[in-house]
Amino acid sequence: MKGRRVGLTFSLLTVAATTVYAQALDLSAYRMVDLTHALNAKTLYWPTSPTTFKLDSLSYGQTPGGWFYSSFAFSAPEHGGTHLDAPIHFGEGHLTVDRVPLDRLIAPAVVIDITAKVRTDTDYRLTRDDVLAFERANGRIAAGTIVLLRTGWSTRWPDKKSYLGDDTPNDASKLHFPSFGVEAARLLIQERRAAAIGVDVASIDYGPSQDFMVHRIAAAADVPGIENLTNLNLLPATGAVIFALPMKIEGGSGGPVRVVALVPRR
Ligand SMILES: [Zn+2]
Predict the structure, then answer these.
(1) Distance 83 CA to ligand 1 centre (A)
(2) 96-136: per-residue pLDDT in tens?
(3) How far apart are CA 167 and CA 160, in angstroms?
(4) What kind and span of H or E run contains 186?
(5) With left for phi above 0 and alpha for psi between -120 and 50, is residue 24 left, alpha or beta?
(6) Mind telling me the catalytic residues?
(7) CA 15 to centroid of ligand 1, rounded, Å
(8) For residue 164, how far is the Cα from the chain centroid?
(9) Rounded to the nearest whole angstrom, what is the distance from the C-alpha of residue 17 to the centroid of ligand 1?
(10) Ligand 1 center to residue 203 CA distance, Å?
(11) 157 or 3: whose pLDDT is higher?
(12) Which of 20, 44, 229, 253 has the highest count of CB atoms within 10 angstroms of its CB?
């Protein structure tokens, strides 16, 4: 009886070990790309934001004990720099940032490139036809994909006037930059069931937007948005896996996020 029980335990352990090895991720098969702007005194916030990123030194230097020690305190609004919009940002009763499911934040990505279109129209909005053209070239966007929109705007960061289109203090009524269009957002979110949408400009709605319809469509479907991304030029149209893990602010409407892509080395 005792012997049989030991044997059973051993075979369960063998099965568990085999399963672990079969699922191990071979990271040498990927390059890692950082899609995040560093937070500093130049980090851009919405023009109406009352405060920006602040870093105060609490300690910096040699201690009486003879070793070095440094420590800082930071403060920042949730929405600025590379950050996540939780669904509650534009949807009462929808998910707060701490409750966004991990499978919306770690997922395969596609990158739709509109850099050619925005050259002649800084207020360009991704259209439904653009998405369908992307799918004809790259295959249908699968449910659970993080859809990233590349405008090329990150090269303007952190110059407020060229990045946001206007640098009038405390005024968000004259902004100009491209982003998602409403019908493209409906297609990606409601029909394709994207896990999340992200962009290398300050908002998932384009600069002149006054009704923030893309934010509202995403929030209603509990789809988070990722804003102020960079380095999207280093990603393939398909094949990357995105990790976009925001600070876990309980009850928060969003927060700073470190976004990293794993790109297969081919
Ligand atoms: Zn935001």
Answers:
(1) 6
(2) 999 999 999 999 999 999 999 999 999 999 999 999 999 99
(3) 6
(4) helix 182-186
(5) beta
(6) 89
(7) 45
(8) 18
(9) 42
(10) 7
(11) 157
(12) 229
